[in-house]
Amino acid sequence: DFLFFWGAVFLVTTTLVAFLKKENQELIPAKEETKGITDTYKLLFSIIKMPAVLTFCLLILTSKVGFSAADAVTGLKLVEEGVPKEHLALLAVPMVPLQIILPLVISKYTAGPQPLNTFYKAMPYRLLLGLEFAFLVWWAPKVKHEGGFPVYYYAAVVLSYALHQITLYSMYVAIMAFNAKVSDPLIGGTYMTLLNTVSNLGGNWPSTVALWLVDPLTVKECAGAQGHTCATAAAMEV
């Protein structure tokens, strides 16, 4: 019902925009940015060949490796330790107002000539929060009781998530501000799309690798089966 309702709202809203919103003909530039798909990709290739852009892309593609495991695996491990999924979902509700307010606050610090300074300053704190998340996973079985988990444990999780959101949005808004600042206005849409795509890819591939490495890096012990390590799927089945 939830998905159906918002799906209907989405369809109605976008349909109304399509039929009722008109382009301002006076503001349309006389010369188009590109003439077609081929020209667009040629333009993207010429942009990415520039030394400064290439260096920035390498930076942004590798900058999120350090906290990929904490971001991707923490929630799954908490569920594995017995924290109910519906409780974790409810903990996301207090984050919504924070997610709305944070960009407004952080944008004041990224509006200057060096928006990436905020990115650099937030990085060590986000790395430290990875250790905090590891502690939460380790702590979960220690405080678990028959009725579930105590309120103070959930409070610690909410506080950790809130601090994580602050560092995450500090880095995200800083990157968006930087991309907007360095993009050539003549090809702004194409330029920003390229940089934002690279930025998104830089966050996605480390999380995928982290999830893939969970099984190989997890130490398992077999109860009552000497000589088996349970390291592989076949051994676990045995």
TrEMBL record:
Domain of life: Eukaryota
Transmembrane segment boundaries: 6-22, 43-67, 87-111, 123-140, 152-175
One GO location term (cellular component): membrane
Record's subcellular location: Membrane
SUPFAM superfamilies with a match to the protein in the record: MFS general substrate transporter (SSF103473)
A GO BP annotation: acetyl-CoA transmembrane transport
Its membrane topology: Multi-pass membrane protein
GO molecular function, one term: acetyl-CoA transmembrane transporter activity
Chief site of localization: membrane
Keywords from the UniProt entry: Membrane, Transmembrane, Transmembrane helix
PANTHER family per UniProt: ACETYL-COENZYME A TRANSPORTER 1, SOLUTE CARRIER FAMILY 33 ACETYL-COA TRANSPORTER -RELATED
Listed name of the protein: ACATN protein
Gene that encodes it: Slc33a1
